[in-house]
Amino acid sequence: MSVALAIGLAFLVSLLACGGYLKLAHRWQLLDMPNHRSAHQQPVPRGGGIGILLGLFAAMALTALTVHGWPQPFPGLAVIAALLGLVGIVDDRRGLPVALRMVFYALACTVAVWLVLGSAPWWWLALAVFFSLWLVNLFNFMDGIDGIAAVEAAFALLVAALLSLWLGSAGAFPLFCLLLAAASAAFLHWNWAPARLFMGDAGNIPLGFLLATLSIQGEVSATLPWVCWPVLLAVFIGDATYTLGWRALHGENITQAHSRHLYQRLARHWGSHSRVVLLMLAYNLLWLAPLAVAAARWPGYALLWLILAYLPLLPALVKAGKLP
Predict the structure, then answer these.
(1) What is the DSSP letter of 47?
(2) pTM score
(3) Which of 124, 151, 209, 261 shows a CA-CA span of 20 to 30 A to 233?
């Protein structure tokens, strides 16, 4: 019962904290003003993703008091996520130089990988840091229309939790995933199209960080094979990676903000954010979730599951590249 209560608390605190932040953001004029790249037409408060973290932390505290303490690396990951959230608040409010943000992100990912992997070979550590840093950045890139980042996070976390339980784990890993999924889902009340509140760097950066480190922790602890995560997150990883590669090949400045992603082009073409998010969710549920089940059951065929997850996306990415 305490576990169910903690999940409910994560949802409720996130819901209320985001609502409270929304009022303060209007009062303090913490608004995202529309520009030529924006997918919205009216000023909308940003930085509301901090409410997701507050929901997670409140539920973790309740669980620690009523059920069990949290083993490492989960407390350490939560602390680092909180620090990234604070950096995100500053960036949402004042804007930080790209180089400085990357230093913060790289340092956070390096410390987290050390917490999770410990004395692993240096090349494993380097690969893990690179993967974590990429997921942190791509989650920021992909948070560009209403509801998309919260839906993707909640989906991946919920499926990962269920898969780890199915594989026989009943410890901290699936519980952490469920708490973060509940907090992310609550944010949708404020962020579903038309959004009243944006997640901002205060939310999408910590979310990307936690998803990356959870994927590594699941593999290390034999709780959930790592390959399940790039399968579950195929839409985000595929869109961000393809778009970045296309821009680099065409000589564009890849650090400059843009609106060339598949999901952004589709949202403009259809004139609808929710339609794009629902299409992504359908692909996730009908194709990627079954593939993740197969990857969890037969991780030795990891390359096959990855090919099957990403191959159907390629024609869509190429075709969408022709949209304005």
Answers:
(1) -
(2) 0.95
(3) 124
